[in-house]
Input
Amino acid sequence: MRKHAQRGISRRIKILHVFPNFRVGGSQMRLAMLVGALGTDIEHTVVSIDGDHAARTLLPANADITYVKAPTAGNFVSRIWSYSRYLRNAAPDILITYNWGAMEWAMANAFNRLPHIHMEDGFGPEEIHRQIPRRVWARRILLRHSTLVVPSATLGDIASRIWKIKTERLKHIPNGIAPNAPCKTAIAELGLNLPDLPRIVWVGALRPEKNPLRLLRAFSQLRGEAVLLILGSGPKLPDVIAEAERLSLLPCIRLLGHRIDARDIVMQCDILALSSDTEQMPFAILEAMAAGLAVASVDVGDVRQMVAAENRPFIVPPCENALGAALRELSADPALRARIGRANRLRLRERYDAKGRRMSNSGRRRISAIMPTFNRADFLEEALDCILSQTEPPNEVIVVDDGSTDHTDAILDKFSAHVRCARINNSGAPVARNTGAYLATGDWLWFCDSDDLWRPDYLARVRGLLNADPEPRFVFGNFRLVRGGIWGTRAKFDDVPAGYWGDRGVPKAHGDWIATSPLYEKLLEFQPVFHSTLVVSRTLFDTAGGYNPRFARTGSEDFEFILRCASHAPAGVVADALVGIRRHESNFSADQLRNLLGEIEILQYAKIHHSAAASVLPAIDRQITQRSLQSLALAFSTENYPLVNSLASSVKGSSIGVKPHIKMLLATMPPILRDPIVNLARQRRP
Output
C-alpha cells in the first residue's frame, strides 16, 4: 500500500470524488469497480452536487466511504469560493470530477492546484449534434493541467481535436466489466406473464437523448414476434406509455422501471436493443456481451468497435426502420443470435473483462494480419511463411484473393490449416483490405502486401510499442527495398530529411519511439510509412473510415488512407529496417509514373476532404506541383505527349525552370517538327 508521509506520520491516501448526482449510472458503476479494486486502505469521499446518493448501494460495504452533499451557495462566484474553501479544508490527495456538471469544482481547484483527474463520459441532449462553444473553451482552459480520462476512442478524438487536450494528459481507458455472477433474480418469478417469444431488453434512463420512442417505433415492426422489456425510468415515461398505446404495443411490452438487478434480467433475455442519440461506451452493451446476447443498436459512440465482427451488421444508422429491421432479423433466427452471442462473449473476455486475461489497454493485443493478393502466386508462399514465422505471430491471418487468375488457389491450399481465405471479384486493393478488416476479429489490423518480406521479430517489436505509454493509434516501421530477392543495404529512414523526426517523442526499447504529434504535414514532404509495415488499431480504422474504394485503380492507393491515419497521434515507430519491400524492375518506370499520378489525384482529393489539410494547403499545393513536374519528365521520356500537355496546367505559373517549359512547348508541336528536335537532343545527351 502506497502511503504519504506528512510531518513524519504515515497516512492513507484520500480521494475526493465529485459527481453532479450520484444516481445509478455508468460513472457510478465504474467507481464501484474502482473502489473494489483499490481495497480498503484508501479513504473515499463522494460529493453529490444535488445531494442524491442513491448509487451508494453499488459500492462495497467494507470500503471507507463518506457521502457528502456539496456546499450550498448562491451565485456562480459564491459557489466557486465555497467549493475552493471546501477543497482547502478537506485537503484530499487527489480530486476526481465527473462530467460537465462537476466542472465548477475543476475551476475551484485552480486556487488549490490539487492533483486532478476529470472523467468525461459523454454529452447530454444539448450537445448531441454540436459542441457548445463556451463548454469547449472551459474544457480547454480548466483541464490544461489535469488528466482527462475518457472511455471511448470517439470521445478521445473529440478531446484531442476540439478540446485541444495534450496527448500526454489524455487517457483512453475503456470500460470494463466483472465476470457474471449467478442470477439472483429469476424473470419467471416476477409475474410478468411473458409469452414464449424472443425477449428484447432495453436498459437506460427514459430521457430524450436515449430516444426510447425510436425504440418503440422500431419494435412496432415486430408486433407479435417478440416481447420487449424496458428497464428504466425518467421524464419520458408518460411519452413512452402514450406512444406504446398509439402503436398498440402495450400487450407485448413490459415496463419494469429502474431496477438494481437489471444485469440479472439482461442475462435472461435474447437481444439487447439500444436506441440512443448519444453514447460513448455503454455498460449495457458490455453486460449484454457478457451474457452472450446479440445486440441491435444504432451506430453511436464506440458501439460498433465494442461488439464482435459478427454483430456489426446489426449496428445500423440512427433511424427506426433500420433498427427495426435489425431486431426483426435477429428475432427470427435463434441460431444467428447464438452465434453472435458466443462471439460477443469471447470478445468481451479478450478486451473488457475487468478480471480476465487482458484488457484492451494492457497485455497481449489481438492482431489480425490482412493480406490482399492478386496474381502474386510466385511471391505469396514466401510472404505467408514470413508472417507465420514471426517470433510473436499474429492471432489470425486473413488472405483476400482479389480475383486472381494464376495459381494462387494452389498456394493458399498449402496454408489452409493456418490461414483464413476469402475470395472476391477483382475490385482493387482498397476493397480487398476492407473485406479483410470486416472479417478480422483482432483489435489491431496488420496490413501486409502479398509480395513483401518480414524479419521474424518485426511483430514482436510492434507488440512492444502497443503496450507503451502513451498507447499509439498506429505503428509503422523502417524498411529496405528488395530487388531480385536481395535486400538493399540502404534503409528508408536513412533518407529522412534533417530534422524530420524532431525530438523523436517518447523513446522506447531497441531505439523505437512514440511520435506524439500528428505526422500529416511531414508525410507531404517525405513518405516513410509503407503499407506492409502498418499496424492500425481497429478503433482508428473504423474512425478513419477504412480504405477509399474511389482509389481502387489508382497508383499509390494506400497513400490516402495513410494520410488519414497520420492526422492522428500518437504513432509508434520501429527504428530498424525489419521489412523488405519488393521492387519489380521490369516495370519500374511505368509504376513510378502511375504512382506519381495517383499521389497527385490523392492530394487534390485531400485538399477538399481531409480535415487535417485545411492548415497545410500551401504545402499540399507545393507537393502537387513537385509531383506534376516529376510526372511530366517521365511522361516526356516515354513520349507520352498528351499526358505532358495534361500535366502542364498543374504547373503553369510556377517557378519551374527552363527545361520543363521546353518540354511542354515541344509536346504541343506536331510530330513532324517535334521528333527531329527530340532525337537530336537524345543524340547529344552524354
